[in-house]
Amino acid sequence: MQILDGKKCASAYKETIAAEVNAGISKGLRKPHLAAVLVGNDGASETYVASKVKTCNEIGFESTLIRFPETVTQRELIETVDKLNADATLDGMIVQLPLPKHINADEVTLRIDPAKDVDGFHPGSLGRLLLSLPGFVPATPKGIMMLLEFYKINTSGIHAVVIGRSNIVGTPLSVLLSRNQNPGNCTVTLCHSKTPDIKSITLQADIVVAALGKPEFLTADMVKPGAIVIDVGITRVIDPSSPKGYKILGDAEFQPLAEKCSWITPVPGGVGAMTIAALMQNTLEAWKRNTLI
Question: What one-character-per-residue DSSP string does 198-263 give?
């Protein structure tokens, strides 16, 4: 078993991004600028946004964090997105999900200018992805592809099974894995909550991607020896024995799977780190376009 180390991979990409930013700044260009909108005090969202802000500082980006209480109105959020859309010094924006139940998240996402949609959630971004046109690829699927490329995993002609069909991870990743590219050229099966006997399908897979948000759903008896396991899940589970009162679990049962598979991503330190790296890469691309590099 070998670890697909997201922290190591992300660090390498961040160094490359920082070098490009420094080169641009030395020519008199402004810094890349990323804005994040955070609603409420969800622990996971707080941690994730804090990591994004920290990464911006590390690689020379300017970052703006806009906070709202849980009681924010739909109108207030829409007005904020409109202001960010109109800011010519802003290259990318994200509205951190999930949003409170009284907020129509689709309406907020649709309001984001696709040219600043560095999360890749806008229908325009997803449509361009489907048609293999240039555009922003959703950060988590993009990060997974970056990770496979970094470790030179040969995926051509193999069977990939993706568990989870969300528009943010599972569906776009299935498209990327099937593309005529490297990594890619996989035969892809997309499983979901209505798929009968998922185990019989994952046992056929050379790569299994667990992206359904259920802690330790994927167990060792569900994969064949030598398979590659990509764990997208990250869930806080109450654990009184932990100093923090909780522990972090992925969608895969790590230790038993690690003893059986050829490569596996850890949680934390795997896909999550790559999601942030991919977000920064998308923001860099937006900055290069806006500054005509």
Answer: HHHHHTT-SEEEE-SS-TT-B-GGGS-TT-EEEE---EEEE-TTSTTSEEEE-SB-HHHHHTT-SE
